[in-house]
Design brief:
By secondary structure, this protein is α+β, with helices and mostly antiparallel strands. About 40% of the residues lie in helices and about 25% in strands. It has a five-stranded mixed sheet, covered by helices on one side. Strands 1-3 form a two-stranded antiparallel ribbon. The protein is globular, with a radius of gyration of 18 Å.
């Protein structure tokens, strides 16, 4: 068979698989599973996420936990997905070695538990910060632009708040806030 035909066929297969992945992610974004809240500890979920990513030799994790963090009503699976999406974005942004610092605590008002995830990657351009949670917005060649949109949706499902601070060249910082008293289970 002609090498141009083979190359063309391989390109088509790659693009079809890419489109299938995109459709799957849009479906997941459109209908997250029903929230199944249970008393859970954010520190334990973060431990589980860090374990998942510890195989990356070029990434150093530093977890500064508030040991007195009480359990709150959250969906463990959805919150773990949100944490994993943010950590994964940090790792993908590193050109070589990087560090991720995760801190937990309670905000000054005593209303929210706060998870702060900060990396020392390349950061986000000022003009892009306001777009990062928009479905379809991505700076990656292979990204779908849904990872942070899903994170935002998960946080909002928990009546929480999410913010991002970043200075280009100095990493990105995500602040996730979960109410101490959540609504109906």
């Amino acid at each position: 068979m002609n090498s141009a035909v083979i190359t063309g066929s391989e390109t088509i297969i790659t693009e079809v698989n890419s489109l299938l992945k995109l459709v799957s992610e849009f479906n997941n974004f459109a209908r997250l599973p029903m929230k199944k809240a249970e008393l859970s500890n954010l520190n334990k979920l973060i431990d589980e996420s860090i374990i998942l990513f510890q195989s990356y030799e070029n990434v150093e994790f530093n977890f500064k936990r508030d040991e007195n963090l009480p359990d709150i009503l959250i969906d463990r699976s959805l919150v773990r997905q949100a944490l994993n999406n943010i950590i994964s974005n940090s790792i993908q942004a590193f050109s070589e070695n990087g560090s991720v610092i995760i801190t937990t605590g309670i905000d000054d008002s005593g209303v929210y538990q706060v998870v702060n995830i900060k990396d020392n990657g390349p950061g986000i351009k000022a003009g892009d910060i306001e777009k990062i949670f928009e479905p379809g917005f991505t700076l990656k060649k292979t990204g779908t632009g849904l990872g942070l949109a899903i994170v935002e949706k998960i946080i909002f499902e928990h009546d929480g708040k999410i913010y991002c601070r970043s200075t280009e060249g100095h990493g990105a910082e995500f602040i996730l806030m979960f109410p101490m008293e959540t609504g109906v289970v």
